[in-house]
Amino acid sequence: MRRQLDLSLPDLKARYRHRTETATLQCAGNRRAGLMAVRDIPGEDPWGPAATSTAEWTGVSLADVLADAGVDDRTAAHVAFAAPDVSQLAHPAQPFGGSVPLAKALAGEVLLAWEMNGALLPRVHGGPVRVVVPGYIGARSVKWVQQVTVAPRPSDNWFQAVAYRLLPPDADPDQTEPGDGLSLGSVALNSEIITPHDGTTVTAGPTQVTGYAFAGDDRTVARVDVSSDGGRSWVQADLDSPASPWSWQHWRTTVDLSAGPVEITARAWDTTGASQPESPAALWNPKGYVNTSWPRAHVVAR
Amino acid sequence: MRRQLDLSLPDLKARYRHRTETATLQCAGNRRAGLMAVRDIPGEDPWGPAATSTAEWTGVSLADVLADAGVDDRTAAHVAFAAPDVSQLAHPAQPFGGSVPLAKALAGEVLLAWEMNGALLPRVHGGPVRVVVPGYIGARSVKWVQQVTVAPRPSDNWFQAVAYRLLPPDADPDQTEPGDGLSLGSVALNSEIITPHDGTTVTAGPTQVTGYAFAGDDRTVARVDVSSDGGRSWVQADLDSPASPWSWQHWRTTVDLSAGPVEITARAWDTTGASQPESPAALWNPKGYVNTSWPRAHVVAR
After folding, report:
1. pLDDT digit string (tens) for B82-112?
2. Is residue B170 domain-shared with residue B199, that is, in the same domain?
3. pLDDT digits (tens, 9 = 90+) for A98-141
4. pLDDT of residue A256
5. Domain boundary residue among B163, B183, B203?
6. Do B130 and B163 fall into the same domain?
7. What is the Cα–Cα distance from B75 to B95, expressed in whole angstroms?
8. In-domain check, residue A1
9. Would B143 disulfide with which of A194, A212, B130, B271, CB 3.0-4.6 Å?
10. Given a cut of 90, is residue A72 above it in pLDDT?
11. CATH code of residue A100
């Protein structure tokens, strides 16, 4: 049996309780440049730490819409989102799409959103209506969403089945089959240094170091450490409380820099006590995803 | 208002639906010996990789008991467990106890259990009735549980407020105050090599390497890699599916060893694409918890 519920934007606004959530959206390729410094990754963008940001999203809970549509199929395990924008990056060219586990879709925080930071959602950010999947890689927060489908299996859209997958380092990304590698969903623990910028000159003496950290879907960041001696000693940064369970957290501390070149390093710890791997070399993968290695800023103090 | 529900073991068995879950219990100090090799940790046991195991537990869902007790207090956020065994390790000496977030306690998998692997729970494992908190450090699965209390704050028992906390490396564990450091709950991603044993001699040629990996409460292990050249190259191990969402996963692969000394290394990846830090040096902490660094077995092939 197939059931279908057709909803206009006015329907969405009128039929369901409105909900606002603060959520960080982060590209799976955030910080890819650090992996490309280990070994080139042809055809991918050299994202630094800014392929991520945080906004307040307003819309309705996807869970309420799914309940209204009578989703009670015990064989259903995934919810797919389809957009109208045909991508030439896909093989074959096809509209953008993706899916998330039903359990996540039924969590109240997944939204069909039409507002961002209190204003109507701009078209470039997915207006009139986009999906917002807090804690998941940005690719699952499908823009301009037109169709939501409940199904037993993950979407077979190219962007779910082939792209956004963590491949082993020796895999040939041009030869991958649908289902190869690890499908990315919830974001892994990560952090970045915002200031000082890598490659800049700073004044010797007390220097403020700032950054962000993010622990993804089901955890928050519990501690961030900063080192200015290559990781031999660390100071604990002041860490903001998360604005929501799915929000990055900003941090800051002051380190005393002697004149000369210095490497500033950071590392975050999540609520399980897990921390970040040291080196991008161990994390290199053919599509350049999930660079969770310690961020490092090389500066010269004068 | 305080409400109280008194239940005998026959009451537990008669009033609530029985539930069986496979769950790995892991000491927060599992693999501490690897941290002690970096710097001594006086007064703590040098656990190797065997401070963990997996069993099938049968009992009732704590959630059902809490519902029966009318837990609907919006100010409640934690559930504390109290045991009768007075510990002289605590300051001051006190009965063992601990707590978990109410959200976890209301997840169906948290049990009041009286059976382990189909047999009556032995006293040494917490019989007649213990708590089993799948995915959490073993200390929260309180043995011989006598009292369950719902409260706005975590338990102030010494084993919750002072012990089982991840302290920064420069903290003095004898000077910590209740609430210092990061309270451990859900287990962090980890793995270990079971065979060959560190320090043994093996026959040169194809050698089977086996181990376990565990991703804690809310994730599973998606991939395990094995290296026999110090992490320069890796092979993907065959990885068992988890017996439950809260179970370790065994893995195995074969590496070809030339005659001579060799370091076998492993690393696990969870479903978010997060992996383990390389070195225990970066993870050292005064109580020796959460050693999630790459496991390494140094063997000689002959």
Report:
1. 999 999 999 999 999 999 999 999 999 999 9
2. no
3. 999 999 999 999 999 999 999 999 999 999 999 999 999 999 99
4. 97
5. B183
6. yes
7. 26
8. no
9. B130
10. no
11. 3.90.420.10
Task: Output the average pLDDT for chain A.
Answer: 95
End-to-end CA distance of chain B: 72
Task: Identify the domain boundary among A183, A202, A234.
Answer: A183
Higher local confidence (pLDDT), A75 or A69: A69
* Residue A274 at interface with chain B, using a CB cutoff of 8 Å: yes
Q: Give the structural domain span for B30.
A: 9-183
Backbone dihedral region of B179: left (phi > 0), alpha (psi from -120 to 50 degrees) or beta? Answer: left
Tell me if chain A has a CB within 8 Å of the CB of B80: no
Q: What is the pTM of this model?
A: 0.95
The amino acid present at A6, given as its one-letter code, is: D
* Gap between the Cα atoms of B147 and B158, Å rounded: 16
Pairing of strands B296-301, B201-202: parallel
Query: Is there a contact between B274 and A218 if contact means CB atoms under 8 Å apart?
Result: no
Same domain, A135 and A90: yes
User: How high does pLDDT run on average in chain B?
Assistant: 95
CATH number of the domain within which B278 lies: 2.60.40.650
Q: Do B165 and B183 form a contact (C-beta atoms < 8 A)? A: yes
Give the start-end residues of each E strand in chain B: 18-26, 52-61, 78-87, 94-101, 111-116, 119-120, 130-132, 147-151, 165-166, 182-183, 190-195, 201-202, 205-214, 221-227, 235-236, 238-239, 249-257, 260-270, 296-301
CB contact under 8 A, A182 and B273: yes
Same domain membership, residue A176 and residue A133: yes
Residues of B in contact with A234 (CB under 8 A): 168-169
A216/B272 CB distance under 8 A: yes
Q: Residue B38 carries which side chain, given as an amino acid letter?
A: V
Q: What is the mean pLDDT of residues A54-75?
A: 92
Work out how many domains chain A is built from and give that number. Answer: 2
Q: Specify if A4 maps to a domain.
A: no
Give me the pLDDT at residue A174, please.
86
Mutation site, A39, A272, A290, A293, interface B, largest B CB count within 10 A = A272
Asked if B13 and B65 touch (Cβ cutoff 8 Å), the reply is no
